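User: Structure please.
Assistant: Input sequence and predicted structure:
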Amino acid sequence: MRILHVTTEFPPIIFGGLGTAVGGLVNASARAGMTVGVLLVGGVLAVGEGWGYGEPVAAKYSPDERLKGFDGPEGVTFFQVSPFDPVEAAVRVAKEWQADVLHLHTAWVWPFAHAILEQTGIPLIYTIHSVDRAEYEIGQELGHILEHREEQEIAIARAERLVALTRNETDLLTHYYPESRDKIRIVGNGIDDSERARRAALEFVNDEAPLVLYSGRLVERKGIRDLLAAIPYVLDRVPRTRFVLAGGPPPFSGEEVARQWLPPECGPYRDRIHFTGWLSPDALEEWYCVADVLVVPSRYEPFGMVVLEGMLYGLPVVAADVGGPREILEHGRTGFLFPPTDVRALGDAVLSLVTNPDLRRRMGAAAANEVRHTWLWPRVIERMRTVYREAVKPNSSRGAAATLPNSTPR
């Protein structure tokens, strides 16, 4: 079976959880013996002779050469088209590579996926990494998030199978799109382990100046303003605490990001609040290794790759009690959950950890064990294989074929 993934980003040049999740799924699929291709629409292609974390090489090649594909790590074949290319370019890739399944990861590129669907008839699987209407209504994201709402609705209607990341996302999908219910399969994301993460999970906590890390895109639905409102509350009580906010759109520096987001109330605490700007995966890993607490204050979080990342490095996680974090974390054991947008509860949860090194150590150890027991890619990938098999055999059972690894209520 030949799976062609369509996405707008892929490691090492990524801007959020989408790229991390797609990269992990693609590489895990290849390791599991699947034949995998990636059609990158826009983005940065860093394959071929320049593969790695160095300078991207896409600009060295003509569009025709990029359509022929490059072999990258794990035996994955990569293709690239410009968002402004005719849709026939994507159709050419699907036909010449002889894809059996088209796996779409964002409706932003629906015109390309639609053209492939219309001209090849291969089955479409759509992983809904977030629901645009939920981002706007629940996450309080700005109105521009709805620009591709119609494309997402069409993609949902046309897909043979829909992949939701959590039970909560399944509920949202069936709320907004009731006709999609029978097509939904729940397959959570996974994560790859590393020796460096294992070492970091065993290191001693920082008793002198605990570091609280936020990692991810800086957008409204991620609850950045709630976190910034809670920082003075924490620092007034534990002045030695440090906060690091890792992320931001390239090419802006940390200082430029800070000027955009930092409210006047945080001015007196500026020496203990650090914005990094956009980071490569390697640079972000450095912060995970030195952090003591991860905070995920999202108002709407379909899954939360950063939750798995923090757990992998042995960090207790303070997260809003929504979506993915609610289903990944166990309150009081691997982290603390607080009501979304509740600034005081967020601050109190952070305080309970920065003032108690033993609690941080226990929770971090439990988180590290849990993520390795439940969320590593080899435990997740077979559920996705089942969905692929269903897609190419549409008359198979319409029951819930794939679920989250911890789908049993606690």
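The radius of gyration is 21 Å.
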